[in-house]
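Appendix B: complex inputs.
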Amino acid sequence: MKLTQALKMAAKSISGNKGRSALTMLGVIIGLAAVIILVSYAQGQNLAMEKYYESMGENKLTVYAYAYNNDVDLAEELSNYCQQISDCVAGITPNEYVWDVNIQYGVQSLGQSNNSYGVSIGGGVYVTDSYNTRPQFYLANDQFGLCNNYTLAKGRELSYMDIKRLNHVCVLGAATADTLFGMVDPVGKEVTVNGLPFTVIGVYAPKGNGTTEYNENGDNWQEVEMSRMDRIVVFPYTLTRIFNGNQSISDFTVKAKDSKSAKEAATLIRAFLSGLVDMENGNGYADVYNEGVYREEENEANKLQQYFLGGIAAISLIVGGVGIMNIMLVTVTERTREIGIRKAIGAERGSIITQFLIEAAMICGIGGILGIIVGYLGTLIVGKLAFKIVLIPGVGITVGAFAISVALGIIFGIYPAAKASRLQPVDALRAD
Amino acid sequence: MLIDIKNVYKIYNEGQESEVRALDGVSLRIDRGEFVAIIGASGSGKSTLMNILGCLDVPTYGDYSLDGTDVTELSDRELARIRNKEIGFIFQGYNLISALNAYENVELPLIYRGVSILKREDMVMEALEKVKMADRAQHKPSEMSGGQQQRVAIARAIAAKPPIIMADEPTGALDSRTGKHVLEILHTLHEEAGTTIILITHDNSIAATAHRIVRISDGRIVADSMNDADLQYSVAHEGGAGA
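Resulting structure:
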């Protein structure tokens, strides 16, 4: 029997038993789609994590240091030291969070107070504040963007001269600019900060969705953190007199060149600070945190979750396989009779096995393609709902899962045929 | 001699308490062009005999020569070729493939034989016309009556023009009128094409239409006689259950 004949025969058999073919395909479709969606979900979670860490800035060190004797200017000293170790440090900025600031443009104002955590949005109307919605005010230098991974959308960053001359300027986060200015270009505009005139010199590109919109239920925590990073206003740190009750700067962010130099820089800076701050006598405090360490821990936890999801995916693949096997075994009687008939009218064993092999391959191939389509659609939906990104399954998992489910289908599909074709025709005909 | 079996045994569960001798030393010779009825009660071994004659089953012991070939020595593949080329089967339960329509069912043995598609079309339609089922070519078995299905099964058996037709209770599931029609087709085939017909039945009146009657009981041939006019008359009037 020619191959084209076998192909035609298999196609006839599939279309002649639509119910059975559909059920078998369903097994393949469910198994495959489940694997693709679950594995993609795990990958999506990783992606969201990656995106978050990227927005935070890679290879970041957080330095916390203060000294009670005010003759040491830690900001100046640290900045100078970091220039000395520039082979492992790319930048340093004060990263001082300040309270009790109000910024106003026209009738729009944004504020935040240490006591009430209140935000007033327009016309002095206060709304309930929360960590997720209040603006963030920072004192920093010209390297704030570099260290915290902000890019400029408009205007310029703080400059060295702004710091030196105590210029009344500020750079806005995307959400802050959106709230205060709406459609107006903020660059060059004058705003009022705690009653003093300030000029907006730049706006950062958004990290989250770039607005103050916040969906309490829908967003995952990475999203919340990222949109929080858009609600900032950055002032020259030398204006500490206006914002900080003239206290010294104690929070810094250091950007290391890479993850290896981050460890080195942390050690060096820690050593440098211990020489500067008299911790032993309780005259100050200093420490350096390596953000990369948290990230590694997070990755470990993620890996566990991926194994877990992978396990579920493997189970669903097996369930799909068992589904296929079930259908094949249920129809084994009918098929055995059919094989008996075919043998009685002169089919050789080889032609029967060829036909059944092609039939199983066709059913599983079509089911597999449908399964991939369902899996891709499901992944897109899951990506949109869970991570708000366009999530597309990896090629490896798609090809791998397709190959496994098709192989399972073919093995279970051909098994009854191989067994029945070995029988004497009369025994196969007798099956019921 | 077309068919020649000698001392054929078919024994199930040999040596055990439940041993069954379906065929207990059967010898039979059938010549080309004969119309033979093998008659016996249910369980007499007549179907087992047909299965062995038709190469659907192998004997436990004994020799079988088909057209001079020792069938017991043949491989699975060669047996398939013999079933395809030499023998056309008609079963009591029709044994059509339910997923295929009448045309495709009749076409099947021709496909396995390797007949080209153009020739196949002529042969299939010729066979369907012979059993007056040409107008039902596109119907599936589930859309046909029992008589129609059996006629399609006959068309399948004769499509490749095999020298031997074996029919196992071909009228068993049919009413007497349709049954008669099926028998007429077999007789026409025998007379016009000279096909050797082996008809298995438990029904004396059907056996009586054959030219030779072989009676089988408990796995043994108990009578083998030409069916002359007198006998044909007497058998037809005995009626009732056989053997």
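The two ends of chain A are 28 Å apart (CA to CA).
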